Amino acid sequence: MRTEVYSWRLSDELKSDLEREARLRKMPVSSILDLAVREWLKKSALDVEGEEAQRELHAAAEKYLGILAGRNRHKAETAREAVRKQLRRRYGR
Question: If 0-12 CB within 10 Å is exposed, 13-18 middle and 19+ buried, where does residue 49 land?
């Protein structure tokens, strides 16, 4: 049951598109807006989860930045695999 009201201004074009979509689906504009907002919130939540995972991976990799040592002059070319190998050894990934 809807109990809250939220309003905002939109362009004539967007309003026409919403009304057309509502007519095609035989639904009220408010239902179309509910669907759109729910889909956006769901997608936004997935993006946030992905960003958090990236932050965790970056934090794990930061421990190894600048500590790759050796006599291999091509280290820059193989650094990605070396970091991944160290992460797999440490975290079992």
Answer: exposed
Give residue-wise pLDDT tens across range 25-63.
999 999 999 999 999 888 877 766 777 777 888 788 777
Whole-number Å distance between alpha carbons of 51 and 58 = 10
Q: How far apart are CA 18 and CA 25, in angstroms?
A: 11
Report CA 84 to chain centroid distance, whole Å: 23
Give the residue range(s) of CATH 1.10.1220 domains in the chain: 10-55
Q: Which CATH class is domain 10-55?
A: mainly alpha
C-alpha distance across the termini of the chain, in Å: 46
From the number of C-beta atoms within 10 Å of its C-beta (0-12, 13-18, 19+), residue 64 rates as: middle
**46 and 36 Cβ atoms separated by less than 8 Å:** no
pTM value surpassing 0.70: no
